[in-house]
Amino acid sequence: MPLLADRQSQLLIDGKLVAGRKGVFDTVNPATEEVLGVAADATAEDMGDAIEAARRAFDDTDWSTDTELRVRCIRQLRDALREHVEELRDLTIAEVGAPRMLTSGAQLEGPIDDLAFSADTAENYPWRTDLGHATPQGIPTDRVIAREAVGVVGAITPWNFPHQINLAKVGPALAAGNTLVLKPAPDTPWAAAVLGQIITEHTDFPPGVINIVTSSDHSVGALLSKDPRVDMVSFTGSTATGRAVMTDAALTIKKVFLELGGKSAFLVLDDADLTGACSMAAFTVAMHAGQGCAITTRLVVPRARYDEAVEIAAGTLGSIKPGDPTSKRTVCGPVISARQRDRVQSYLDLAIKEGGRFACGGGRPADMDKGFWIEPTVIAGLDNNARVAREEIFGPVLTVIAHDGDDDAVRIANDSPYGLSGTVFSGDDARAQAVASRMRVGTVNVNGGIWYSADAPFGGYKQSGVGREMGLAGFEEYTEIKLIATLAG
Ligand code: NAD
């Protein structure tokens, strides 16, 4: 069946597609402000039903121990998503405002293919490891380490890369034997809800194993952090919300996995190709209108070449006009909502109040009256103490900061409440790697290397999060460790 043929999505609870008790809410195209259709609006009672279904599926079925079934279901899901990939592409461009070119990578096709990594990992995983014989306290004992699912996982996700983030939780959590309730962002309900339709039509997932609850009300998602029937909450979103999730989860001492905000630095050392480095930094900030948590939004350049660096960055960013995400050539689409546009604009206003200047951009494009747009912008003339250099803006905005050598560049990179990602460019790989090893961040790009991949762990230091998503580490986040000690005969 075509996806969301009647332009209305439902909840997936206990294996059935059902309506939300609160009715429906609109999902909107951020490039045109057109209402695309509606999504089921869940209440606290709906969320309670979903949690109960996940609890039953975990406690009363053999899902957590039947690895073969889990692997089969995840591969079915991957195959069905691939079959629907062109419909999903259109949906993603329309609902997320994601430029078409990004849908062949992290916005869509990448995370679908990456489900294979979760299935393969579960299939080949050493669920039991022999720790061997020992005589602790003089008692002969044979020890085995068992890895087991944590239980019911509550997954709460944002709107910027919805498929990537939804599937990077759904894949490993289910492959590891957990059951799950997914609560997506209200701005992108369909990207998650289509999974419900595909799962019911094309896969053998038993009822309750995966539940999808869309809601216009953030407090419905908060129930996942609070409810004692949920064993673990896996959250991606802002640091402020992550803090609320952690606080709520403390009431029941839940396992908490957090992927939060960032303010990552792109360090250009004095022997680097300045034009290549600054152009790349600028281009990256324009992609998906800067709505990526790991985008390097602080460009840190040698003081002696500051003006030149600003000019190069502005040359690149100033030439990228925000535009129609359906076009193959568009790099910078809209931001997700009027609220987000106004938030970015308030940071641009703040940059001027703080004494900065715009080398390009600086506001809303004059010629676009429908949709939520921000011009790619370079802020110059500020140091790392400015709020626009410290706080996450989440728009196509690059702040250029001067450094006085490698030590100072590292100091600036680390002088941030965040620690998500970073980049170092130098003419000398060893020198760049030495700088990379001093950065307190979860991923570093050295001279253009790509850290994003299904087998590579991703996550943050400091207030950018707790734990790692993807890779083996991302799979093991969804497991508990049990030591079984047997008296040796
Ligand atoms: P957000 O924190 O506003 O919302 C994220 C999700 O949390 C949404 O589903 C929302 O409904 C839900 N939510 C809101 N309040 C809640 C509460 N009290 N309890 C539980 N859930 C609640 O974030 P956003 O605006 O949707 O996304 C942008 C943010 O996400 C940025 O800060 C960005 O850096 C971050 N992000 C981080 C990563 C990463 O991997 N580190 C990836 C993508 C986005």
TrEMBL record:
CDD domains: ALDH_CddD-AldA-like
Top-rank taxon, per record: Bacteria
InterPro entries recorded: Ald_DH/histidinol_DH, Ald_DH_C, Ald_DH_CS_GLU, Ald_DH_N, Aldehyde_dehydrogenase_Rv0768, Aldehyde_DH_dom
PROSITE patterns, per database record: ALDEHYDE_DEHYDR_GLU
SUPFAM superfamilies recorded: ALDH-like
Domain Aldehyde dehydrogenase: 22-483
EC number: 1.2.1.-
A GO molecular-function descriptor: oxidoreductase activity, acting on the aldehyde or oxo group of donors, NAD or NADP as acceptor
Signal peptide extent: none
Keywords: Oxidoreductase
NCBIfam families the UniProt entry points to: aldehy_Rv0768 (TIGR04284)
Family that this chain belongs to: Belongs to the aldehyde dehydrogenase family.
Protein name per the record: Aldehyde dehydrogenase (NAD) family protein
Originating organism: Mycolicibacterium smegmatis (strain ATCC 700084 / mc(2)155)
